[in-house]
Amino acid sequence: PQGSEEAKAFVNAFLKRSMPKKKDEAIQDILTRKAVVLEHYSKKKTKQKRKKTKGFTAKQRREMRLFEIEPEQQRYAIFLPLHELWKQYIRDLCHGLKPDAQPHMVQGKLLKADLHGAIVTVTKSKCPSYVGITGIILQEFKHVFKIITKEDKLKVIPKLNNVFSLEIDGFISYIYGSKFQLRASERSAKKFKLKGTIDL
């Protein structure tokens, strides 16, 4: 058994070790209370910085021709199964495209949908040579559609100053390319406003 002075010295030393950030006066103040709450200081772990995996730049992608479709792959028949998949995707998205479906609801979903695989037709254009071109959308970029026609020709159609139509299960939707200059990933989050008249 220890004497009172030894016990006091032990407690003081113990508290000093347990609470290194406290001054002696603060420890003495704590001792006058009935309950003593010991503090725990955990060592801060140094976080290792994660190295971000850098992707290819636009220039590198062009040089590697990542988005180019080989000439032997530029055939309309190859992409017909893609169109069938797209039609099923739109039916699921619009809950079956029933005859009583609200046109504005279907239009709103089509504007945000992925259009890879859709068959589109240029119905209006400031450039007459584009009017009437029909094909399956193979790639959508911010400013252009790449489509494959029934004649197995790959066409690059600008969105600006063109109106496109697409038809599925009797429902025809019109896309004003000038108001559609977004990447597919950006379109899904954009809110499109209904407008009465839209110019080319």
Report on the architecture of this protein.
The chain has helices at 4-18, 24-31, 58-64, 80-93, 103-112, 184-187; strands at residues 119-125, 134-140, 144-149, 154-158, 162-168, 171-176. It contains 6 helices and 6 strands. It is an alpha+beta fold and 200 residues long. It folds into 2 domains: 2-32, no CATH class; 70-189, Ribonuclease P/MRP, subunit p29 (SH3 type barrels, Roll). The N and C termini lie far apart (98 Å). A hairpin with an 8-residue loop joins strand 1 and strand 2. The model has no long low-confidence stretch (mean pLDDT 81).
- State the CATH topology of the largest domain: SH3 type barrels
The main pleated sheet reads as: 6 strands, antiparallel
CATH architecture of the largest domain: Roll
Task: Please report the total strand number as a whole number.
Answer: 6
- The radius of gyration over CA amounts to 34 Å
Question: Between the first and last Cα atoms, what is the distance in angstroms?
Answer: 98 Å
| Beta-strand content estimate | 15-25%
The whole-number mean of residue pLDDT values reads: 81
C-alpha geometry: elongated
SS summary, helix count: 6
Low-confidence stretches: none
Tell me the helix content: 25-40%
List SSEs in N-to-C order: HHHHHEEEEEEH
For this structure, what is the CATH homologous superfamily of the largest domain?
Ribonuclease P/MRP, subunit p29
Walk across the major sheet and give the strand order: 4-3-2-1-5-6
What's the CATH first level of the largest domain?
A: Mainly Beta
Q: How many domains?
A: 2
Which structural category fits the helices and strands? Answer: alpha+beta
